[in-house]
Amino acid sequence: MNVTIYHNPACGTSRNTLAMIRNAGIEPTVVDYLETPPSRQELARMIADAGLTVREAIREKDTPYADLGLDNPDLTDDQLLDAMLTHPILINRPFVVTPLGTRLSRPSELVLEILPETHKGAFTKEDGEKVLDAAGKRIV
Description:
Glutaredoxin
């Protein structure tokens, strides 16, 4: 299965998402989006395919969001996309694209909605939260 994750290795949610993909027996294409941001068209498509608005896909925490005045409700989607492409740290993460769909995997277990059920056993997130049992089934 062809899977792409737009990853920030400094982000625990992104690391957990990547580990869950690998737990499903898939080695994804890993794009460090801070170094290699998606094109405008790719970013807009991911946001739309994930069922989000552009504003919902912007990361506010630990970014120049407030300094850039991006909380202004009069800003257009084009203006917000421009800011995200100029400052990739504003792109919320991690976006994951698979043949089964696209998700902004926050929380990380949202990635399970777009992966095949081929998990290789239990999975526990970095913070100790158990997500999959020994049979690879989701713990609810």
